[in-house]
Every structure is written in C-alpha cells, then in structure tokens.
Type I restriction modification DNA specificity domain-containing protein (Methanosarcina mazei), 400 residues
Amino acid sequence: MTGEWKEMSLSEVIDLIGGGTPKTSVAEYWNGDIPWLSVADFNTGRKYVFDTEKSITQLGLENSSTKLLQEGDIIISARGTVGVVAMLGCEMAFNQSCYGVRAKEQESDNNYVYYLLKDVVNKLKQISHGGVFDTITRDTFNEIDILLPSLPEQHAIASVLSSLDDKINLLHCENKTLEAIAETLFRQWFVEEADEEWEERNVTELFEIRDGTHDSPKQKEIGKALLTSKHILKDRLDIENAYLISNEDFGNINRRSKVDTNDILFSMIGTIGLIYLEQSSEINYAIKNIGLFKTSQNPEWAYYTFLWLKSSLGQDFIHEHRSGSTQEYISLGSLRSIVFRCPPTKLHREFNEIINLYFNKIKFNNKQIRTLEKLRDTLLPKLMSGEVRVEFAQGDQPDE
C-alpha cells in the first residue's frame, strides 16, 4: 500500500540548526526584543510556542552561537527532557539544549515534519545517550529510518492532524481567557476591595498542607506515574514524561500524600510557584517533593486558594519565602504559614457561585481537549505509517 513511499533516513529530510546562549555576564545581550527559547517555554503539550520567559538583544544574537529560527520552524529538546517538539509561532533564538529543525524543501515541509518528529520521538529517546542526562545528537537523526510519502500526500496528512491541533488550541485559548476573568474577579473582590476588618486565619485552620514522598521508589517500565515539580507545567501536568513506579509503591505514597479532586499542587523546587488545580475525578499519579494543598477537605476554599496563589498576594508571598542559591525552593513550613484575610461567608459564597461557572467550563473544555488529543495520538502513527490513507490531489501543494 505504501510502495510509492520513499525509504529514507530522517536526516535526509531535515536540516538541523544548533543553538546557544549569550554570555549572562553581559547585560547588553539580554532583555531585548528577540525571544530566546529553552525547553521550559515549549514543554506545554501544544503544537505552537509563542512566548518565552527570556529574551536577548541583537548584540546577544550576533555575539553568541545562538541562531534565529523563522516562524514555522520546529524546535526539539535534545538534553535532559529530550524529545519535546513544538512549532514556532514567530521568530525566536534558542539555547544549546535544543535543535532547530527545518524541512528540506525538495523533500518535505515543516508542518509534516512536525508530525513526523512527534511520531518518531520515542525512537529518538530510545537511542539517545548520556551520563546523568540523555542526549539527542546529530547522529541520532541518522539512525532513524522513515517512509516518506509524496509532498501532496504529506500535505493532506498534516492537514488532518493540524485540524485537530487547531481545535485543541482554541479550547486552550478559551480556558486561558476564562481563568484570566476569574483572576480579575478575585483581584477586584478580595484584593482591591478587601476590608482590613475581615478575619485573618492561618491556612492550616481551613485544610492541611502536605508534600509528596521524599523517597525514590524504583523505576518500572510499566506502572503508575510519579510526578515531581518539573511535571507541573503552566496549565497542565506532564504525566506522559513522568517516572513510573510499582502499584505497591504507589499505594504506600498515597497513604500519606494522596491527591484528590479539588486539591492544589504547588511546585516547591526549581521553578517555584507553578500551580495546578486538580479538577479531574480520575487521578492516577502520586507526587514527590510537591506541595499539596488539601483543599478537597474544605472545597469552598479551593477556588479562593488557587486564585490567591496566582494573585499578587500569593506571588509576593512566594517571592519573600523562596530560599536556596544553586536550586531555589520554598519550604513546607513556609507554605503552612500562609495567612488569608477571609471574606464574610455570604460574600465568599456569592463569589464561588460566579467563579464556579468559569471553572466548570474549563473542566468541560479540558475533557474535550483530552478527547481530541486521544484521537490525534491514535491517528498519528496510523497516518504516518500508511495504515490509514487520506485522499489528496496530485497537484496539492503545502500552504505557505
């Protein structure tokens, strides 16, 4: 069925571009108008990356080994958390822990190559090598064999998968808007219009704050996910790349640190202060060195706590209580010292009734996102192998 597809190595289809980092000691190289990518910026599970935490100047670009990728180019992480793939939504530079990837025009186009990389990423991970960290090298791409359809068929395949990613992206954008509205309402009701006479209460009077296990259970090839702070992303949990542990270890950890619906996870080490409200009723992971706000014990405080942590009040608290030089952290004791200025019960209930509408919509959207992601991930290997074919016209050309 795929007899007309060409057998090639992955490296024959793409050009690789190396990245770099301007000297951090030269202030003139930083905080310019050129976005500068690291894996933390695009490890989101989404197709496109539009924003970066750091930026560089034209001087930084010219006086370092970093390169400028174009809109529509691809980025793949090559060290540590290997195999994370995204497509650039605008021009960006990038660090040396990643490769820029660009399709060779006579063989493919970037949109198809994005899905090709997503399809072979597990093979890339299997043959990556390193000491403490796995590493994808240029030679790694030579070792991956692929079957490449004609350009018109590539275009048709990528179009099917892109339509699903576009729907997923729209739902994520809607969720971002809904959460921003909720944050604005919290600020108006409980920051700008807060009454100094409202009762102050320590957070531990309302619910427990725990952390995950400090042990390091043995890794398993098949098992339950064990999440650490690095698996808390900006708006989701990176369960796919989590360490797997046995059911026995999973049960032992959850006797002390079980995550329930309406609990809040808080990254305590490394990138401090990433926050995730668990709304799902199907929770199949355990946690290690993650702050656990047991708001499920007192659900009426779940939204308030989540939005407080994301507000200027919470962010100021986090900034004031962070410690460490080599690796920053915030202690469990610090989290337990949080004090809320509690609004009157009636006002709090009115707020929850309003906010519940937004979070229920977010929950519904997340369910749709999971359904679309499952469909996309099921179709991906079938389309890329030729098991499932799509109709296309021989004259079709990739979109510009």
